[in-house]
Amino acid sequence: YNSAAFDFPLKYVINNAFGNSNWGALSDKGIAGDPNNNRYAVTFIDNHDTYRNNDKLSNNVLAANAFILGLPGTPCIMLPHWKTYKTEIGNMILARKAAGITNQSSITEQGTQGGGYVMKVQGSVGTVMVIVGYVANANTTGFKLVSTGENYAYFVSDNVDISGTTPPDEPKDITVHINAAKAPYLYVWSGSSNILSSVWPGDKLSQTTTTADGKVWYTATFNAANINLVVMPPPLYRSAHNTSTATCFATLKATVPTRRPMRGFGTMKGVSPVAHGPAQRSQKWAAHKMATKCGCGMAANCPHHCPPAWCLTPGPAHQKQSTWSM
């Protein structure tokens, strides 16, 4: 055969995985994942038809492009995506070529890790590794970073020459400011999935500043190119033990940013709300209420009255069991 076709089976997987942060769905890679037919797969995020109907991908667009730029098959980049992310996509295209990835390259490692997905593809010169979603402390030994952003990181093996790419942002001090009545907890990880705070639920903040209007802001500073964060307030426990269900509940309140803060409140390039938090990007600070069930089974003898003790699994599994509402 001398022809190729759009890989629509992969397109629908991408919509599910990246549109809903359902990273495990990437175990199905459509035609591109079939070593007998990947040479015929034209991988894409959107085309001239899907971009103007309900099949358009709206979430994690750059992360999805990173994924197909690591896959076998022939990637086709949508022009609006290229115009929006020219530097990032351009770097990954150059790195893909430098590693010798083709439409018939082999996937050597793939699978879910933590709350994300890791894939390695072997080229004729080196290896590409793509991480999407949230993978805590991913093993990147022997690899160098090409590009990173919200819910993705793109690496090539150390032997690959990427001198033609634009270097990723250098680490810098990023200061987070949180307006809260009581000291919150802050869980932070970098764009390359390295945890920068203590383990879940993170560090209890103590350093404060007070603005002219009398508001108290808790602050923390991290050194990284970009960061992701989750704000967890101290629990406000109330009498809600139920002897029949043997569960206890804590009502939590938090004030968290859904966009980069205004000038004067620090530079936070790359900061984004957690995947299971609110999807809206507002120009204000938004207050959210989160109710979390610990399910300890101890009823009136629940041992978790003192923060920051938690029953739920740390990290994304905890987030998935939480309910956010405006």
Q: What does this entry look like structurally?
A:
With 326 residues, this protein is an alpha+beta fold. The chain is built from five helices and 18 strands. Strands 4-5-6-8-7 form a five-stranded antiparallel beta sheet, with helices on one face. A four-stranded antiparallel beta sheet has the order 15-16-17-18, with no helix packed on it. A three-stranded parallel beta sheet has the order 1-2-3. A hairpin with a 1-residue loop joins strand 4 and strand 5. The C terminus is likely disordered.
Order of helices and strands: EHEHEHHEEEEEEEEEEEEEEHE
Task: Describe the oligomeric state of these chains in a short phrase.
Answer: single chain
What is the count of DSSP helices, taking H or I runs of 4+ residues?
A: 5
Strands ordered across the widest β-sheet: 4-5-6-8-7
